Amino acid sequence: MDDQQQEALTGAQALVATLADNGVSACFANPGTSEMHLVTALDGEPRIRSVLCLFEGIATGAADGYARMTGTPAMTLLHLGAGYMNAGANIHNAGRANTPMVNVIGDHAVPHLKYDAPLTSDIVGLAGPNSRWIKSADRVGDTGKLAAEAFAASYGPKPGPVSLLLPADSAWLEGGAKGEVVTPPPLRAVTAETIAAAANAIAAASKPVMVINGTALGEAGLQAAARIKAAGVRVLTDTFYPKMRRGAGVFAPERMQYFAEGAMADLEGSDLMLLAGTSAPVAFFAYPGKPSLLVPDDCNVFDLGDASTDSAASLQALADALGAKEAAPVEALIQPDVPTGDLTAQSVGQSLARHMPENAVVSDDGVSNGLMSYLPTQNGQPHDWMMLTGGAIGQGMPLALGAALAAPDRKVICLSGDGAGMYTNQALWSMAREGADVTTIVFVNHSYRILNIELYRTGAGNPGPTAKNMLSIGGPEINWVQLSESMSVPAVEVRTAEAFDTALADAIAAPGPRLIAAVVPG
Amino acid sequence: MDDQQQEALTGAQALVATLADNGVSACFANPGTSEMHLVTALDGEPRIRSVLCLFEGIATGAADGYARMTGTPAMTLLHLGAGYMNAGANIHNAGRANTPMVNVIGDHAVPHLKYDAPLTSDIVGLAGPNSRWIKSADRVGDTGKLAAEAFAASYGPKPGPVSLLLPADSAWLEGGAKGEVVTPPPLRAVTAETIAAAANAIAAASKPVMVINGTALGEAGLQAAARIKAAGVRVLTDTFYPKMRRGAGVFAPERMQYFAEGAMADLEGSDLMLLAGTSAPVAFFAYPGKPSLLVPDDCNVFDLGDASTDSAASLQALADALGAKEAAPVEALIQPDVPTGDLTAQSVGQSLARHMPENAVVSDDGVSNGLMSYLPTQNGQPHDWMMLTGGAIGQGMPLALGAALAAPDRKVICLSGDGAGMYTNQALWSMAREGADVTTIVFVNHSYRILNIELYRTGAGNPGPTAKNMLSIGGPEINWVQLSESMSVPAVEVRTAEAFDTALADAIAAPGPRLIAAVVPG
Q1: Contact call for B31 and A292, based on CB within 8 A
Q2: pTM for this one?
Q3: In this predicted structure, what is the pLDDT of residue A330?
Q4: By CB distance 3.0 to 4.6 Å, which of A74, A197, B10, B439 could disulfide with B507?
Q5: Chain CA centroid to CA B106, Å
Q6: Which of A39, A57, A280 is nearest residue B467 as measured by Cβ atoms?
Q7: Whose CA is closest to B471, among B450, B488, B491?
Q8: Beta strand pairing call for B234-237 and A244-246
Q9: Helix, strand or coil for residue A67?
Q10: Higher confidence at residue B78 or residue B288?
Q11: Cβ contact (<8 Å) for B125 and A125?
Q12: Interface mutation target, options B30, B39, B433, B462, chain A, most CBs of A under 10 Å
């Protein structure tokens, strides 16, 4: 783009060009009238793939998946405050996954705001709490500069979603200027002194444990974690993490238990807890008479840095400081036999271990069925496993969509609860539209099953018919095959382990989106 | 409930009992772990009907529809900040409709908050901007008191959604006490002096116009409006209003035009604009070079009070002050012949005029097809017409659900765009579950058609293939019959005016939910 063209840029063009210059390559969008100039600016920007989503929560979930695969934020395009709200749960989730994301929120033209038109709202107020950074480009001349600032801010200190408001007049007016190409700030490095102190603490401890997350869950980080384990430190991941390398030949840390009482029993006697790429583990929810902080009373906590640090580098340095040798080789490929009989989450996991191709990517929003599918895949082909870290169900399918577009040469498997899947079923349409190579497995148990468990754990009393009814989604049963095919994603329902195994093999063999409704016990 | 029982109330029970005592009769809910005690409290409260929704935006849209019919707020039950965000767009819409609504948002137990568990967020920050009132019941002893306060606050001064946060420990602990039965504050009354001044202003004006909304759109208000019109004042409603009585024998005001240039041309020469139950009309969006405020330059504005006033009472007083006689009788029932040929929004309107039973309720989220369906129904059987006032599409089906449950003896008709319908398609499931007597008509044009219009109006340039693609939802086409039947709502697709007429007659004759996919020009 020469200087003359630069002169004539609209604000929308300056914003889009700046993000493209910085390496943003996808925009997940649900535009409205106030975003029309952004739509045409994207139309003229071949470096950014525009993906239409039928609900804003799909857009932000997909942007999360895209960035988890590429390491670079995707852009979203949201329609004023209401569009931001629709997008909000998956922005919350992305924040809890520390995923960089640039949410561009169209707003009314600045002179129009004072008239309080129907779609006017306090967008900065609404979006502020879940934004690492938020600004409004109230002057067309600032659009490029703020786009560069937003891009950089999405990297941190702690990576996450940022919000850039673009008033319609700042979009349509000429006078935009491209912002700089910025070098994203690297994750923080832990000092040599801290590493040495951690090594000393480990030497002094009788039962040390380390909880890891973030970059430690990549291939290099896990190699270092294996060495640290060989040096006598128990290694756990957080219960939920954004992405981990797994499978044959990859060191498999244990996983922190979900239920507080189980986690505390499991950690009993640990006298040192090192934290790398995470914070002290806490119970997902509070329960009467149960602990919130999942650290034994007499256990010292050693902080090796939260998600703003490069935990892989910390672990490599710590392994060296411990003089830890290379760990023993871990188990190679184990492919189970065809599972038979009743279809369960475990048999689903066994079939996954049998059929997942090398380098597959899993998006796990399986809720109560997630863990039992997870365990059997440990020694399948090497793959990446992504989880819901923020607890707002309805992330699985959008995340899978984004991951598939970011990594078109890899098979993506989505695990979703039926309750979770209903939140964002519109993702299926974008999968079909984009030919996304995703096999979605919906665990159909006609129930918010996790809540049936939690109802008892919270001591909320004996459920009567109304309470039971509020946790059941089986009246009427949702026909997932029809739902999926209504959006042009071919689908099949299965009720036995054998039938699932065949359906999974078929779906994985076929390019493009497929859905398997896996009817499992409620 | 005697004193002994009162002693043993949990906070959740105190909250629920207080709302029930105050006349709340429905709770639209999507609960999570932190709301389990609310679920069991609702289980023990026969005065409140609990309705499960598969996405929180359904719950708030339905609560809006319920309150528009009953005049009493419904309760919703939302799961922390993420649940609030999912619910947010239809809360925005309810705010713009001035609909009272009590949103109860479960939060973590107070001692748990400091650990920043995955679902923790700044709920007061997120919910504040769209709440008329917001408080957190951080002490179990306050739960009943604050429930009463929230209920009263939803009535105003300007009615709308309020947010009551209920931490899980305040829900589960005993020590709750019921709050008072409160008398909701009435809408404000305009003074006699103001009415006299308005009458004088009308007498002095050469071309007066009055824009009305709120209670003025009920039967008594419209009778007064007809008298004012007979006295020489042109009467218009806002372009979008929460609810209006219409049909044979009911005075029909004109309707403010949507597009700014059309509205301004229409109002040219008006030298006095009275506002009753509303604010000065403004353009829905800003456009380059077009006005925001839809009031001619030399036109005086006379404020008879916004949505916080009883505009029906204002109009009756004004009609008396003008000495206005009873207006001439308005047109009686006109039922068109069977429309023939291509299916259009207009032919849909003609069929509605033919088949809508007396006292039907219409929920209109028809977007670009709304107006052409609206006009032909003017002289159908008397009915109530409800509109999307907040501009966040995806309200139509949830609103219809709530209206149907509030008025089980009335037929509800939902008009939805296909783009709008996809936002909240999960409403169909709750319609099936509750046997809601709703006939949903989806205008299937495979397009965000309004945006194709707006793309040109905003001067966003000639759309290239990417831009056109971002406004088309036809690749792939959504199969609405499959989608609807996947959630057990019987459905049919029609492509001619005659076929639609038959399908509508059939759907209206059948009790319970039905869906008609009306394929109209794109």
Answers
A1: no
A2: 0.97
A3: 84
A4: B439
A5: 24
A6: A39
A7: B450
A8: unpaired
A9: helix
A10: B78
A11: yes
A12: B39
